[in-house]
Specification:
The complex is a heterodimer of chains A (555) and B (251). With 555 residues, chain A is α/β, with parallel strands linked by helices. Chain A has 15 helices and 30 strands. In chain B, the strands form two sheets. A four-stranded parallel β-sheet of chain B has the order 2-1-3-4, sandwiched between helices. In chain B, strands 5-7-6 form a three-stranded antiparallel β-sheet. The mean pLDDT of chain B is 92. Classes of the chains: A alpha/beta (555), B alpha/beta (251).
Chain lengths: 555, 251
């Protein structure tokens, strides 16, 4: 079907001898000229060279081409280059297609040049049929609010806010308690330096007087709407509602220590938690001489299958502090495994052992039993039951997710993992990002983290956030999904299936509507819609079918 | 024909090229952004146009660039596979996972699949005795995959079995599977009937004979199809009605 409006130019590349040495490139250019809607076709030595690019531009203008196909290497590497050349020549960059006849043809069929050339002909023909159906698309420019919201005023939140504030971005720090500081306020000293926890809170003064940081204490998040660069956060401070505009949001809500209610007869007097011990140490109220600490209480079990990362070091720190104060004390730590990674923590652990702290391994299936003045435990190493005299038992429990994580996650439209900690976009490649653009996470909200990890992650999150904030505006890809409202029945399948929550229901028409800024163009909604009501621009069903039909042929 | 996702499998194929790993020339690749973009009707179309084998390659599960796209691909292809099984075409479609770093694996999969298809021989719709029968079967498969009922079930599968519905009920994997299988089987027969009576009107016993199922079943399907506006009475000969497919109707 020839349409006078479609004028396709096909440029076949030799790529030196990479393609030209295997495939019959001139015959490919000849073949292309016989295809429907192809106005002009030629071959180049290196299409991506200065000469080659100029050739494309000149021919677009001379032959009034409105579709361009380059048959050469991979679009993954060269599509942006050729698209911008088209743009320079006045052609919409989405009217450009690439055919991969090098990485996926000449390089892999070196011993079968004739079949390789036939394959290239098929691929070019497929592309020509798709190109005839391409439409111009616009990249959307999105304005950005150049400020940030940091949720949580503990060590992670404060670090992130300070980082962004110092960079010059207005930052709102939202804290639900009366004062900043988070868990650090309840701690006595911190490992491995054994300095006062309050030292680390010195920055509070700087933060509270910072020109760029607005602190909202006693505040919780009520509502979050919008998308990257354009978030609207509503907070409730005491009874007052405050609206805050922001371009990015950082989640630094931390975690809370599990209270050992119901474990080992916890009574807060003779059987206490490590957090209780921190208070006692702070006020110099530890009178006991024989102390037994039990690690992994309430975690690394069926209910909570994770390790809380910081409890081993916390217990060891407190044990060492007690002995420093009271050299006559006998401390036994009952452990399942000791997490002492790296050089610093390993040294810390060895020092504890040199100080005479006893480490005895216990099995999860034979937990210690606390009796009046003694702890009974089966030692796997010694293969016998041991009785440890005690006048104080300290239980190490894990950090668990905040109870308001679920609510916050829903408001931000970000995921939680099975223990209700926030789930990052990619554990290795994007550890402080969420899949949703413009929202980041750091500190124990993501995973029980020690102070060094929390501050690193906070700086990382602030850095990631600033990649949005420094820009004048955001430009979003034009190849997004679009709902044909006249066909949509409002079933909501697309709304649920979108990994980016980019589709919502239009309240008035009861049909789905795609947010072009949040849409990443994956096309899953289009393949799922029961009514085929969604167009996936640049990869439409018609375009893909055109490629299939011309390859298969008619039956 | 191969449908490759931009971020993993297509990149893996590029890597095979960079590494100069050779593989058979029989494959033509269509690039999509995500394996979840591959509508199962594309595969049906490919077979209807005589393509001998179809490969759909995506990122490894858990590694999808768009997070959950490949899970959706898995669900779609699983339903497609069940339908292709009914018409004994399932051997010609394969879904697999190739990462951007697995050039070797890509080449291996293409080689293996090419050999496999060569053993099966060219697509039965290109030559052979049962040509029309097979075309009708594939058309029926395509219609089922285009129907709102199946598309609705497929697209809701993951969230229905993992989250509760609006009434607070969660559907177990087992129950959903039964529901889906039931839908697949009944819709396939229904669409087969629609195709059988496209050209000329046929009676229920005739249809039952041609398809090879009981007349009672055919009648039940005809009733449903009539209510959807897909078939209607053609004429009545000596008190025996014949039915014919009509255009339009609500799917």
């Amino acid at each position: 079907m020839t349409n006078d409006d479609i004028r396709i130019g096909v440029f076949v590349c030799h790529c030196g001898t990479n393609i030209g040495g295997v495939l019959d490139v001139p015959s490919l250019a000849d073949y292309a000229s016989t295809l429907p809607n192809v106005t002009y076709s030629t071959d180049n030595l290196y299409t991506c060279s200065e000469v080659g690019l100029t050739d494309i531009k000149e021919n677009i203008i001379e032959h009034k081409l409105n579709r361009v196909i380059v048959a050469s290497c991979s679009p993954r590497t060269h599509e942006p280059l050729f698209r911008s050349i088209c743009q320079e020549a006045g052609l919409n960059p989405y009217l450009f297609e690439m055919v991969n006849i090098r990485d996926q043809d000449s390089w892999v069929h070196m011993k079968e040049p004739e079949k390789g050339t036939d394959k290239a002909k098929d691929l070019i023909r497929m592309s020509v049929h798709k190109a005839a159906l391409l439409e111009p698309l616009e990249r959307i420019k999105v304005a950005i609010t150049h400020s940030a919201v940091v949720i949580g005023g503990g060590i992670a939140g404060m670090t992130a806010a300070l980082n962004l504030g110092n960079q010059g971005f207005k930052t709102s720090l939202i804290e639900k308690e009366l004062e900043l500081g988070g868990l650090l306020k309840s701690l006595n000293k911190v490992f491995p330096s054994n300095e006062d926890a309050s030292n680390l809170l010195e920055n509070i003064e700087i933060i509270e007087s910072h020109d760029n940081i607005n602190i909202y204490k006693s505040s919780i998040i009520e509502k979050v709407s919008g998308f990257v660069g354009n978030y609207k956060v509503v907070i409730k401070q005491n009874k007052k509602t405050v609206d805050i505009d922001a371009g990015v949001i950082i989640v630094a809500t931390g975690a809370i220590p599990l209270s050992p209610e119901g474990y080992f007869g916890y009574d807060k007097k003779k059987i206490i938690s490590q957090l209780d011990l921190e208070s006692l140490l702070k006020n110099d109220q530890v009178k006991a001489n024989n102390i037994t600490m039990i690690l992994c209480v309430g975690c690394r079990n069926e209910e909570r299958r994770y390790c809380s990362n910081i409890c081993c070091m916390s217990a060891i720190k407190n044990a060492m502090l007690i002995i420093e104060k009271n050299p006559n004390a006998h401390i036994t730590i009952l452990f399942r495994d000791i997490q002492a990674s790296g050089t610093v923590y390993e040294k810390y652990y060895r020092k504890a052992r040199e100080m005479g702290i006893l480490f005895i391994n216990y099995l999860p299936e034979k937990p210690p039993v606390i009796k009046k003045d003694v702890v009974d435990v089966y030692s796997d190493l010694l293969n016998q039951d041991i009785k440890i005299p005690q006048d104080l038992v300290v239980l190490s429990t894990p950090l668990i997710a905040n109870e308001d994580s679920e609510v916050l996650a829903k408001m931000l439209k970000v995921p939680l993992e099975e223990n209700n900690f926030f789930l990052e976009a990619h554990v290795k490649l994007r550890p402080v990002d969420f899949a949703t653009d413009g929202v980041y996470v750091c500190g124990s909200a993501h995973w029980p983290a020690d102070i060094a990890e929390s501050t690193s992650q906070a700086n990382a999150a602030a850095s990631r956030a600033s990649t949005i904030l420094w820009r004048d505006h955001l430009e979003v890809e034009g190849s997004t999904a679009e709902v044909k409202t006249e066909l949509c029945i409002g079933c909501g399948a697309c709304i649920r299936i979108c990994p980016y929550n980019a589709i919502t229901k239009d309240e008035e028409t009861d049909t789905a509507i795609v947010n072009k800024v949040m849409c990443k163009g994956c096309g899953v909604c289009g393949a799922s819609c029961p009514k085929n009501a969604i167009i996936i621009h640049h990869f439409t069903s018609d375009q893909i079918r055109a490629e299939i039909f011309t390859y298969g042929g008619e039956i | 024909m191969g449908f490759l996702c931009n971020w993993c499998s297509y990149a893996g194929a590029d890597l095979a090229g960079v590494s100069r790993i050779q593989y058979p020339t029989n494959i033509r690749i269509i690039r999509v952004m995500c394996s979840g973009r591959v509508d199962p009707t594309f595969v049906a179309d490919a077979f209807l146009h005589g393509i001998d084998g179809v490969l759909v390659l995506g990122c490894h599960l858990g590694d999808c660039h768009y997070i959950t796209g490949n899970y959706e691909a898995e669900i779609k292809m699983s339903t497609l596979s069940k339908l292709l099984c009914i018409v004994t075409f399932s051997d010609r479609m394969r879904l697999d996972w190739v990462s951007a770093a697995e050039g070797n694996r890509f080449a291996q999969i293409v080689s293996d699949f090419t050999n496999h298809i060569q053993e099966l021989g060219p697509s039965p719709i290109k030559e052979g005795k049962n040509k029309t029968q097979i075309i009708d079967d594939l058309e029926a498969v395509k219609s089922v995959l285009e129907s709102s009922r199946l598309r609705g079930l497929i697209s809701r599968q993951r969230d229905l079995v993992t989250e509760k519905n609006v009434y607070g009920n969660q559907i177990t994997v087992e129950n959903f599977k039964n529901l889906l299988d039931d839908a697949i089987n009944s819709e396939f027969v229904r669409h087969k009937i629609v195709i059988k009576i496209k050209e000329i009107g046929k009676s229920v016993p005739d249809i039952a004979n041609e398809i090879g199922i009981k007349a009672k079943e055919v009648l039940e399907h005809i009733v449903v199809l009539r209510s959807r506006g897909l078939v209607d009475v053609y004429e009545i000969n000596e008190e025996i009605p014949t039915f014919i497919s009509i255009q339009g109707g609500k799917e």
